[in-house]
Design goal:
alpha/beta; Aspartate Aminotransferase, domain 2; three-stranded antiparallel beta sheet; 16 helices; 14% strand; globular; binds pyridoxal-5'-phosphate
């Protein structure tokens, strides 16, 4: 039987060679490969600086702490995301204030506006599947005099910014664009994940991109954050290992969340061919899926491109019109039986046990539930051949039609319609 995994990592000879080079270089933790990866990310995203860390989650905790987010504060997050978005807020002692999304999966700016209080310190907007949020509108809201006037600055960075911090959860959206520029340019802070299933991976890892207003000294912030990832230590292990570099100092209570060079080398090799090969291959698969389903009246295409934005094609979130959550589950069961692994992105956080225990209710997030109930994420990665894509399309159509009824081509409308409609 055919076996199509959901999201295997892209490991070709250039990745193996880069990792081997690191292994044999005599230096395996944070060093030249991390520096090279950071440079590549700065180049790709045109960001002012990039700091690599050992996960998206640790990077986000770091940036919330950097901004002074603490117990009693609120951070606005969408209900529709991976749990890490809210957990990073909880880890800082603050309250994740969940809001609903729009039907394109992205956080609703109107819901954000309503959720802002004098306790709001930050917003974490999530680019689900790689589709950038409406950052123009989010920026407009946080800069409105009335809303900026609500902001209570309680740390040096907060006084300097004197408004709500806009963080982008860009775990999915490396390579996404807005008005021809990297989407990262639209947020104060953009955090990528290099977890094994993401578009670019370092096995585990993440990267913080800084695009702070000019009143921040980005070079100084980079140095400070680098130190923060290394226990607040004045020297990294590489400089300590050289010559008379043994003496160091600890300046504050840092974290230990640096990325090793072994991991960075995996991502470095992938990034070198990301824009030229890997991203276009993902895009072409997304377009093939759209073509394969375009005549199906049950097909809701995912947001891929509009006059401003383009996704990073991280997921292909298929949605099926007018089905229940149970029907969606049965469709997944049938697809899985054909040897194709699919997924659901995401189970809204208020449906998960821990968040329920904190008092969140899915009934407060009707759009999130609606998107979740009819969503199936299809495999999308450079190694997928045309044969496999055709197989997946056929498998999905068969499974869906078993639930919603067989469709036939209506020669007049040119669309597939349920049998029983007069042709
Ligand atoms: C993967 C993911 C994360 C967490 O990334 P880690 O690097 O595993 O910490 C956060 N947010 C979203 C939306 C994700 O998909």
């Amino acid at each position: 039987m055919i076996n199509i995994p959901f999201s295997p990592p892209f490991i070709d000879q250039t990745v193996v060679d880069e990792v081997l080079h690191t292994l044999q270089s005599g230096w395996i933790t944070t060093g030249p490969k991390v520096a090279a990866l950071e440079q590549e990310i700065v180049r790709l995203t045109s960001s002012n600086a990039a700091v690599c860390v050992n996960s998206w989650t640790s990077g986000t905790i770091l940036m919330l702490k950097w901004f002074g987010v603490k117990a009693g504060d609120e951070v606005i997050v969408p209900a529709y995301t991976y749990c890490a978005t809210a957990l990073s807020v909880l880890h800082c002692g603050a309250v994740p204030v969940m809001v609903d999304i729009n039907s394109d999966f992205s956080i609703s700016p109107e819901a954000v506006r309503k959720a802002i209080t004098p306790k709001t310190k930050a917003i974490i907007a999530v680019d689900i599947a790689g589709w950038p949020c409406d950052y123009d509108q989010l920026n407009a809201i946080i800069n409105e005099p009335e809303i900026a006037g609500l902001f209570v600055a309680e740390s040096f960075k907060q006084s300097l910014l004197s408004r709500i911090l806009l963080i982008s959860d860009a775990a999915h959206s490396l390579g996404a664009r807005i008005n021809g520029f990297a989407a990262a340019k639209k947020s104060d802070i953009t955090i990528y994940s290099f977890h094994a299933v993401k578009n670019v991976t370092t096995a585990e890892g993440g990267c913080i991109c800084l695009n702070l207003p000019e009143k921040f000294d980005t070079a100084a912030e980079y140095k400070y954050l680098r130190m923060y990832t290394l226990n607040g230590q004045t020297k990294d292990a590489l400089s300590k290992s050289q010559g008379a570099g043994w003496r160091y100092d600890i300046l504050f209570q840092g974290l230990k969340i640096n990325m090793p060079d072994i991991c960075a080398s995996i991502g470095l090799a992938q990034l070198k061919k990301y824009e030229s090969d890997l991203l276009p291959m993902r895009k072409s698969i997304a377009l093939k899926y759209c073509d394969g389903f375009k005549d199906m009246d049950w097909f809701v295409p995912p947001p891929l491109m509009d006059d401003k934005r383009e996704t990073s094609y991280h997921l292909f979130p298929l949605r099926i019109k007018n089905i229940t959550e149970d029907q969606r589950d049965l469709i997944i069961e049938d697809i899985t039986h054909t040897g194709v692994t699919v997924n659901v992105h995401f189970i809204p956080m208020p449906m998960l046990t821990y968040f329920k225990s904190l008092g969140y209710h899915i009934t407060d997030y009707p759009v999130a539930y609606e998107q979740y109930a009819c969503e199936i994420s299809l495999p999308i990665y450079p190694q997928l051949t045309d044969d496999k894509i055709s197989f997946i399309i056929a498998s999905v159509i068969t499974a869906v039609e078993k639930q919603v009824g067989v469709r036939k081509l209506n020669k007049v409308s040119g669309k597939y319609e349920p049998v029983g409609v007069s042709f």
